[in-house]
Amino acid sequence: MQILKPVYKVYEWYISKNLKPQNMPKHIAIIMDGNRRYSRLMGNMEAIDGHKRGVSTLEKVLDWSIELGIEIVTAYAFSIENFNRSPEEVEGLMNLFKKEFEGIAKNPKIQKNKVRVKAVGQLELLPENVREAIQIAEKSTEKYDKRQVNIAIGYDGRMEIIDAIKKISSEFKDGKIEIQDINEDLVNKNLYTAGLEDPNLIIRTSGEERLSGFLLWQSSYSELYFCDSLWPELRKVDFLRALRSYQERERRFGV
């Protein structure tokens, strides 16, 4: 492995050199898949340790994104279905989320690069201490508008659309809007990601090739990239390959 590192460094340089800054996606979304499989492959590693490795990978991806000029990153961290995992794993994840969100307020990289942090999903399903930690993170970065990181937690794409329908129905019932006012823009304004451009590129790790309910409305015209690496093993060269693939495509909207 040590012998391969210089080779990968050269490969990283080669891909980076040929990427076009003017064609970089503004918004990338990531399905961070493979933490549990990684822990199983390691043999004696607990599932929560695989998730901790995954947090380290996300931090690296955010560094790479800032370096490359990507403005928005949306990461799928925890779905509603994930609540069905073992109580031990769910509790471990909630403790991890609490720690990481609280740490954002003191994170020098977040503050230096003026990254706004936002949690998206059905946050009311989360334990109170996790919600409080999210409020700390969001409050400490709310004035930033240069870059944004969205953490999808307690998230389900169908429920996001249903929640938008409920909000719009309530506005109609209260006489604030008419039927003819209901259009694509109004739906966008009532999604968890209101105010953000749709992702240009969605990356999923671990070799699975599906969205698993992630950003169902917003992904209509997103480019999809599926990577075989498990999330904790993702290398910069894997990330650069995804960007190269994106730039090599001729984007067609509705065709």
Provide structural commentary.
There is one protein chain. The protein is of the alpha/beta class. It has a single domain, classed as Decaprenyl diphosphate synthase-like (Undecaprenyl pyrophosphate synthetase), CATH 3.40.1180. The protein has nine helices and six strands. The protein has a six-stranded parallel β-sheet, sandwiched between helices. The chain is globular.
Question: In summary, what is this structure?
Answer:
With about 260 residues, this protein is an alpha/beta fold. It is built from nine helices and six strands.
Blueprint of the fold:
Blueprint: H1 4-18, E1 27-31, H2 35-41, H3 47-68, E2 72-79, H4 87-104, H5 108-112, E3 115-120, H6 128-141, E4 147-155, H7 157-173, H8 184-189, E5 201-204, E6 223-226, H9 236-248
Parallel strand pairs: 1-2, 1-5, 2-4, 3-4, 5-6
Helix pairs in contact: 1-9, 2-3, 3-4, 4-6
Low-confidence parts:
none
* Mean residue pLDDT: 94
CATH class: Alpha Beta
If you compute it from the alpha carbons, what radius of gyration comes out, rounded to the nearest whole angstrom? 19 Å
What is the general shape?
Answer: globular
Number of strands: 6
CATH topology: the name is: Undecaprenyl pyrophosphate synthetase
Approximately what portion of the residues adopt beta-strand conformation? 5-15%
**Percent of residues in helices:** 40-55%
Task: List the strand order in the largest sheet.
Answer: 3-4-2-1-5-6
The secondary-structure class comes to alpha/beta
Biggest sheet features: 6 strands, parallel
Task: Give the helices and strands as they follow along the chain.
Answer: HEHHEHHEHEHHEEH
CATH architecture: 3-Layer(aba) Sandwich
- Secondary structure tally, helices: 9
Tell me the distance between the termini.
44 Å
CATH H-level superfamily title? Decaprenyl diphosphate synthase-like
Supply the number of structural domains: 1
